[in-house]
Amino acid sequence: MNAPASVLVVGASAGGLAVAEALRREGYAGKLTLLGAERHLPYDRPPLSKKVLSGAWEADKARLRSEAELAKLDAELVLGDAAVHLDAAAREVTTASGRSLRAEVIVLATGLEPRRLPSQEGLSGVHVLRTVDETLALRADLLAGPRVVVVGDGVLGTEIAATARGMGLTVTVVGPQPAPMASQLGPVVGGYLARLHADHGVELRLGVAVSDLVGEGGRVRGVRLASGEVLPADVVVVAIGSRPAIGWLEGSGLRLADGIVCDSRCQAAEGVYAVGDVAFWHHEGLGTGLRLENRTNAVEQGMTVAANILGKDRPYTPVPYFWTDQFDAKIQVFGFLPSDAEVAIVEGDPARRQFVALYGSRGKVKGVLGWNMVKQTRQHRQHVVDGTAWTDAVGKAILVPR
Ligand SMILES: Cc1cc2nc3c(=O)[nH]c(=O)nc-3n(C[C@H](O)[C@H](O)[C@H](O)COP(=O)(O)OP(=O)(O)OC[C@H]3O[C@@H](n4cnc5c(N)ncnc54)[C@H](O)[C@@H]3O)c2cc1C
């Protein structure tokens, strides 16, 4: 296939920018347009819940590229104008301001939008965190030294709790799981995370359901649990997960499910690709559909999509990777941590908060988790790539009871 005359990327953040940059690196000289709903130049999200929320970084430091670097990209940047409709067959996008943009190839990189509680509408003091504007609004409220309740015991909720606690605030995390991030890390390492938060003074209310938010005079005053108990709060952060930003694609002609459904080349329809948090693609290595919500995926998938746009015909078969920073812990995960996995500590010691754990299922290593052991964690990643037999990889290591 010859290179297309024009490429339009919808979503000007990590995934979208990765596609644009990879296209140029590969020598693409055609017309390139990046369309973004936010008015900001492309910025990075992981620092938002950490350095930007805490105030250690000015928001501008989270920018992915300088203006000079973006100028070199030789792309038209259309910012502050959301796509509201796609005609996949005609490869035409309509924007909120009424623009009509056509291109030979369209890449969809619109990420996620946070879920909300029905009772939060119209209440001040209630926040979600996905964008830089939302981060700065939350930070402004945190500076008043409030009692904070974080609704949500996943990665974002626990990161925000750690940051707010680091600012000296009174913080409670409330969520349905037996341990924070238990669905991602498993109950054992989730238990280590619970201890980390408790040791730093975060109050954990786990295994409980939230019924609604309590307000007074238009301002939030507390979080009501299903038991009827009300946790007093001046600020509430709702971190109960996100959904793919695909509402605007209804009627586009694309298949939509838990994301934009793509083939193994990340192609959703002829000349239409998806990348990053919004893409649900077929992972040939696993033989199943998959959608990943992590930073590394946005870039790796972006590079594969760029190669495929230029005719390379490359399946996307990554070993997933994500990390989270909470208090003094850097937790890194390569591969998958299945809920039925056996877990073995192969380096270090959880009591010293420095260890590497392997996760095995069906006789093979499926994932590796490192806690403050960056180099060693990376070394064990190879077991995931090779699908090393569980018994060979683990040897005499200590199996963690489930
Ligand atoms: C607070 C926070 C902390 C995180 N921390 C980590 C971490 O520690 N480690 C990790 O691995 N991952 C982390 N992530 C996840 C990581 O940031 C995402 O996986 C990554 O940003 C995905 O990139 P993306 O380009 O697919 O989507 P996004 O970064 O969400 O970008 C999508 C862009 O599309 C725009 N958009 C949406 N709809 C439209 C539309 N209709 N028209 C035009 N533009 C549109 C959005 O405004 C946005 O700019 C974090 C995410 C958040 C929110």
Question: Please, could you describe this protein's structure?
Answer:
The structure is a single chain. The chain has 402 residues and is of the alpha/beta class. The strands form seven sheets. The protein has a six-stranded mixed β-sheet with strand order 3-2-1-7-21-20, with helices on one face. Helices cover 24% and strands 33% of the residues. Flavin-adenine dinucleotide (FAD) binds next to helix 1, strand 2, helix 2, helix 8 and strand 24. Flavin-adenine dinucleotide binds next to helix 1, strand 2, helix 2, helix 8 and strand 24.
The average pLDDT score comes to 96
**What is the radius of gyration computed over CA atoms, rounded to a whole number of angstroms?**
22 Å
Number of strands: 29
Task: State the CATH superfamily name of the largest domain.
Answer: FAD/NAD(P)-binding domain
Identify low-pLDDT runs.
Answer: none
The global form is globular
Percent range for β-strand residues: 25-35%
Oligomer: single chain
Major β-sheet annotation: 6 strands, mixed
CATH class bucket of the largest domain = Alpha Beta
CATH fold assignment of the largest domain:
FAD/NAD(P)-binding domain
Number of domains: 3
The neighbouring-strand order within the major sheet is 3-2-1-7-21-20
Structural class call reads alpha/beta
Question: Mind telling me which CATH architecture of the largest domain this is?
Answer: 3-Layer(bba) Sandwich
Small molecules bound in the structure, each named once: flavin-adenine dinucleotide
What is the count of DSSP helices, taking H or I runs of 4+ residues? 10
Ends apart, CA distance between termini: 52 Å
Helical fraction equals: 10-25%
